[in-house]
Amino acid sequence: MAATPDTTTLADRTKPASLATSGATRFADPYTAPYARTSRTNPSSITAPPYAPPHPSPMNQPQPDAADPGRQPQPAPASAWRRPMVARLASEEHRTATVLELFFDLCFVTAVAQAALAFEHELAEGHVGHGVLGYVLVFFAIWWAWMNFTWFASAYDTDDVPYRLLTLVQIAGALIMAAGAADALKDDDFTVITWGYVVMRLAMVTQWLRAARADPERRRTCLRYAVGVLMVQIGWVVRLALADGAGLPAFGLLVLAELAIPAWAERATNTTWHPHHIAERYGLFTLIVLGETITAATGAVRTALDTDTSIGDLAPLVVGGVLTVFALWWLYFAQHAPRRLTGLPNALVWGYGHYLVFASAAAAAYTIPVAVFITLVWLLHHRAAELRNPADVIHPLAILASTFAPAPAPVLITGVLAALLIAATLVLSARAAARCPERSPA
Q: Is 182 in a helix, a strand, or coil?
């Protein structure tokens, strides 16, 4: 028997079931459907469409009139030019990273690369303490600006014209920070990187003010974010005028103020960030940072070959570096991050802890950052009560011990140990699954 042809349109297939028979056209655009105030919409009443593009076009496409299908299609009321910045549903299905977020990450990694390169130059010149301190300070600015954009977008991404323009302003700020990374690490000159950071953060203040206007249920939270971020940015600018001796203590105080803003703001009303979306965004940035590490290592190998370094001398470095990066990727994505994002306290610990994960991944050419990465990934994805196995700490300690081996052995030994760590994890997980089939592996 011949199959009955499907005569439904794309708009019909993507329209939520709760609106398909109501005659409402406000959320006819599949991209605008998630932007409903949670106080007016019951999330359980919205069913997942049989087909939903991963990132529908935000252009203001004409939509059919549900009350009169034969009528000429009219533009959806919520257009791409300006949509109300109401909270997205935390339970929204099929939530994935947008192309704008991916573009943001790719531009942002430029600042990461410049900071890592300046850090390597400091170490090569023997300025270990100065290089580490500068890298820690510079990477905080990079990571914190990225993190604030990510969590805001998870709750309030509208992808309209003002949102896009403000995001592009933040990308411009990231490029300014990238230009000032070398001066900050080498000469302690934070002028350029501070102004780039302030540009990014002031754009974020504007985003929070938009959200406060459109989302009365969380207006107090949004205003707390806006006021808190604005006040701290004034502090960063004032810090540039302080004497050299006061610069570092002032930096520490401003960092504490920045970290306190989310905890203070969310006490009013929690924003509706999406756990799976947040986990995906962090995973994508981890991928980009690890990829940048491989790119930097490839450039170093190319430079060594141009100086007539023998293949035999480079082989241990290349093999160890490749094994290390592969193992770090495997280890990070073997975890199920969304299960840890169950509330604000857990989310803050998980999100803040990624500062060391990202910073160590960007400097994974050295053994100590690799040990930090492995240790932090374990701690962030396991509760304290679950850390009962000595294997949870013996592997980072072994990688730290490899630091004292003669060069180029540390890199090779680190890569081998990291690969053995993955193998041991797989074996232990298989045995645990065999003993307790009902429990999923960690």
A: helix
Q: Dihedral sign, CA of 243, 246, 248, 253?
A: negative
Question: Residue holding tokens 């306290």?
Answer: 345
Distance CA 311, CA 407 (A): 15
**How far is 177 from 188, CA to CA, in rounded Å?**
14
Query: Which SS3 state, helix, strand or coil, does residue 333 take?
Result: helix
The span from the CA of 217 to the CA of 210, in Å, is 13
Separation CA 347–CA 341 (nearest Å): 5
Tens of pLDDT, residues 394-422: 666 666 666 666 665 778 888 888 888 88
Number of C-beta neighbours around residue 313 at 10 A: 10
Give the separation between CA 58 and CA 321, rounded to whole angstroms: 42
The structure tokens 């001398």 sit at 313
pLDDT in tens, 198-209: 999 999 999 999
Q: Which residues pair with 75 in a beta bridge?
A: 62
> What's the rounded Cα separation, in Å, for the pair 212 and 223?
6
Concatenate the DSSP letters of all residues of 266-277 into one string.
Answer: TTTS-----HHH
- Going through 49-156 in order, the beta strands assigned E by DSSP cover 62-63, 74-75
Query: Computed over its alpha carbons, how large is the radius of gyration of the chain?
Result: 25
d(CA 434, CA 442): 14
Neighbours of 190 (CB within 10 A): 23
Average pLDDT taken over every residue of the chain? 77
Contact 206, 166 (CB under 8 A): yes
